[in-house]
Amino acid sequence: MYAIGIDIGGMSLKGGIVSKQGEIIRKVTVKTVTGSRSRLMNSLFELTSDLLNNSPISRDQLKSVGVGVPGTVEPYEGHLIYSNNIKVSHVDIGAGISQRFAVGCAVENDANCAALGEMVFGCAKSMKNIVFITLGTGVGTGIVVNRKIHSGAGGAGGEGGHMVIKKGGLKCTCGRKGCWEAYASATALIRETTKAIKKYPDSLMSQIAKDEGKVSGRTAFRAAEKCDAQAINVVDQYIEDVACGITNLVNIFRPDAVIIGGGISNEGDFFINEIIKHVNRDSYGSTRNPATKIVRAELKNDAGILGAAALCLGN
Amino acid sequence: MYAIGIDIGGMSLKGGIVSKQGEIIRKVTVKTVTGSRSRLMNSLFELTSDLLNNSPISRDQLKSVGVGVPGTVEPYEGHLIYSNNIKVSHVDIGAGISQRFAVGCAVENDANCAALGEMVFGCAKSMKNIVFITLGTGVGTGIVVNRKIHSGAGGAGGEGGHMVIKKGGLKCTCGRKGCWEAYASATALIRETTKAIKKYPDSLMSQIAKDEGKVSGRTAFRAAEKCDAQAINVVDQYIEDVACGITNLVNIFRPDAVIIGGGISNEGDFFINEIIKHVNRDSYGSTRNPATKIVRAELKNDAGILGAAALCLGN
What we know:
Distance between the termini of chain A: 13 Å
CATH architecture of the largest domain in chain A: 2-Layer Sandwich
CATH topology of the largest domain in chain A: Nucleotidyltransferase, domain 5
Structural class of chain A: alpha/beta
Oligomer: homodimer
Largest sheet of chain A: 5 strands, mixed
Strand content of chain A: 15-25%
Number of helices of chain A: 10
Mean pLDDT of chain A: 93
């Protein structure tokens, strides 16, 4: 049994034929066409058709097509409601692909796909309830309850990045003040690193940013590893803010695991271990209650394709 | 079909025989004995036995017994892990009742029971996903996903009161700083009212508190109705803080409804309408996404009995 997984990103459309065991037996990437419903559908058709026509497996081995989208989705309708990243609204992706290729098609938000991908193919195979968070340009959350994605009414759940942790704090892109995303995203870390470099031009962070040609989410972590005091401050504050939101989610849900993905998760063991320390200290009744595991996402580069295919191959 | 619902409160044990339609056909209340496992079990036995022996229905019409507990529960084991209110830990309530009366017994946290009660007998009959919050001595949350209580690992989920909304803010009983409970509980409202009375002794709040013999969760609301400026400040700030946490939960979950119970919910339409205004304004993508309903709990005095019985009569 196989499925096609398609990951619609802001830059590229990635598609793959994925086996029940999570092997990708063929992969195709094309450029994402933004801002137009019909051109988006055409590139999806092109990608799917390419995968099908040049496939090493026969058509009857192919179960269905799963599509992950960076936006709000009505999953039962296969309908993309709105995506800020690819600048389209109200696209009937599911019906379009189903009719064109006479195959089932499931559509979901990409953070939800990533969560399900970890459950079906990644680090959460034996778990029931997880919260997946991505620390990237923004902060996304995907919730899986009883091994099923919790999409929320109208597919609009899973916006945990827009949970206020510092009421009256920094203005967020969503309009509220003090959202977790305004402190825990890679964007926030870059902002704080840039501020610290301006204030302390002698900090090792300046040198690293100069060498790399830009300030990135890694700059402060690299300088902190070399014991730069200002970088340690930036990193400590960032970790505290990330952990604050994770502890909130643990108290609300007590999932089996919180799985951390996105660019910042590549900071590795030091980062994850510090988060675990904070969450174990601060979560409700932590001495009595079973600790929620805090782990790094296992699926890396192909997480988008695998997560979308998991919509069809899960459970 | 009938079930017995038992609500273990800090002061009294209430039990009732409840029909599938949510009628309570017999009700018994006894005093809660705190601090002892065996005495708690004995009073539960006494209550159950009284209900069974003097029951207007025959034994074979009785499906099972549901018990709601103010504490952490391992629901699959029917095991009360810990309750601060009744000062006991590790009580096998489910096994005890099952063996004594040869009947099934389900045990759950009381906020979770209240949530399920609204779904089975109250205002959420046609809904799939709800978040129930109680604004009382503390702030409790109960989550229902796909019409099933989400207990979380080890039954320790649903502690949304301990979500930080003002990082570094007021110290909470749980050890964190800035928890929602420290701002949105009746206790918090009483604290702020008391502060305002001290600072503005001429406020109408002083007079009302004097007349009633104490400051309560109603004091500021009563004075605000009469246009007392300081009371309006207290109430506005309280509503803003309650709404902040509710908006967080809406963004994370996007449930069909947030149902508000507990003492403060009796403030009625003015209170609920103000909350709705804030949440609709602040929730993520509120212009595009279907609004989560914000409603007052429908079940009142017997909510505890009905919620516990819903464990047996639901779905």
